[in-house]
Amino acid sequence: MTDEKVRLASVGLGRWARVLARAAQRGSVIELSSCFSRDEAKREAFRDEFRVPRAASSYEELLADDEIEGVLITTPNDTHRNVIVRALEAGKAAYVDKPIAHTLEDAIAIEEAVRTSGQTFAVGHSARRLAGHREIKRWYKEGLLGDVSLVEANFSNERGLELDENAWRFYASKSPGGSLIQLGVHHIDNLQFLLGPVESVNANVKKLHTRAEVPDAAMVICQFEGGVLGYLGSGWASPGVYTMSVLGTKANLFYDVDFTHWDESHLADKYSVLRSQFYGQSERRTVELGSSDMFREQLEEFGLAIRGEATVEVGAAEAVGALAVVRAALESSERRGARVAVGEVVEAARGSSAA
Amino acid sequence: MTDEKVRLASVGLGRWARVLARAAQRGSVIELSSCFSRDEAKREAFRDEFRVPRAASSYEELLADDEIEGVLITTPNDTHRNVIVRALEAGKAAYVDKPIAHTLEDAIAIEEAVRTSGQTFAVGHSARRLAGHREIKRWYKEGLLGDVSLVEANFSNERGLELDENAWRFYASKSPGGSLIQLGVHHIDNLQFLLGPVESVNANVKKLHTRAEVPDAAMVICQFEGGVLGYLGSGWASPGVYTMSVLGTKANLFYDVDFTHWDESHLADKYSVLRSQFYGQSERRTVELGSSDMFREQLEEFGLAIRGEATVEVGAAEAVGALAVVRAALESSERRGARVAVGEVVEAARGSSAA
User: Fold this and answer.
1) Disulfide check for B333: which of A307, A349, B205, B251 has CB 3.0–4.6 Å away?
2) What is the ipTM of this complex?
């Protein structure tokens, strides 16, 4: 490992920036060297809490700071493109929280900026790093599940019930898709990590019980290349749920994570359970899981990748792929659930980006 | 209660007839007075096992037996219409296992024969009688769940992997829809029992891993009147799964039944668990359940209804309603998952029945 810590700066200093800062400071790879928010009080509070040596008074100032090797971006989704592209063009590496952007056009523009800049870029699709998802993937790859037919996932919580006009997630222009783009996109990445690309979707996405402009109930059927069927449910109007079931000819796996401890990612595995059920048996047995620290691990991987000592697992391609499934699902829902090919949605967005 | 036992006859003496006979004999309402199968050895074995006083050597003979008040039909799905209609026309009450028929046209013809005959008729959508489903319904009705947005159900087992050409379920002409019509139809009834009629569906139904002609993997998104979304997964190529999750603004419920003990329905509740999760909490608590005996209860209700001392809970209307959702899902899947209105499928079938 590199002798000198990787010097990063936090940009957008809300709740999630603090979760990531705590994760980075659990390790010894990253040093938070600076930070920026337009809100001065937030900057000072963040500096104090995380002992950050300095804060920039403008984003320009931050990007002009030669000490800074990369930025950790947790600004609202609709600002990602501008904030990321400026960082890349200033010669900084960029880490951004999921989703990569609020529109596929922005996501593709970011992907293009990553390509032309040659900078390190990572997206926080962290959930696939949970010990349970890694174990499910191992069972799948090693054939312990046999032939898989149905995979079902749900990620829901009560956030939609708490949104008001002060929250950017309230607005369709900033967070189109509601729970589907904020929560569901995690499981889309998990599903594609497990099974490969989603080929097409049928979806029904509705606004039922929350005041926000955005949907709070989504059901998506995914058809994977090869024919396996995947289901994603995602709501914003219930107590928190995070589950995945995988049904195979030799065995089933059932994964259940207590979302309450999500933010403290070094503890998340302790509040999760993976159970197996084998062919010819009704009994379900708990599968022993290792422990992970998804936020720390992804940030350290990003930091080491800047130094050429690691490879980013989730970059622009994977993140565009996850967002594309969200966009395809929303388009399907607008067309009364008609099947939408994910590749066509991406091609259309590339066409309009190029135009 | 009636002093004299209700005299019924079993028709079609396979595995399921024996499950029902054991259920009837756990109670004191029903007397199995006769039985019929085309296979004489099966008739004799059934008489012996259940101490049935006589066996008919033809269905005509059975129907001409004045002692018999009703028949318990467990013949293959594609024979239901003929066997039921002949019983009704002979002045017998009829109980048939789910699905009511293999096609909606047959189901509607049965419904019409019930109406014109005035006979008692019941369909074995028994699962809604499980203590957990009754408790979920109570929570829903009493508002303990708040506003429900997403309901997810799965009923899958390994049966498809075991089918060969000797089994009627192997053939698309006799069991169109595979696991969806054999297993999924249970949960469709459960969902409609809980939430009211399904308005429309989007579905993807595939044949993936089994030798049989019929599909072994189905995913269906149901939109209920009022907008609530329901999901049904049903496969025939994995160890057994029977689950239902209900997500509401005030609470979630998670129901899990160990299907291994399904046949012994007086034990089924003991091998099931219902858990609740309230708003603002991650903890899930086990909900205490009463005990039921779904097969015995439905048969006794049928018997007492013949005597005018009970009302049939699941008759032709409910069973046609459940099959209609299966048919709408299969049609949706053939049309690449396009939304299909259940009412239109029923109307079309009524039109072709009337023509």
Assistant:
1) B205
2) 0.95
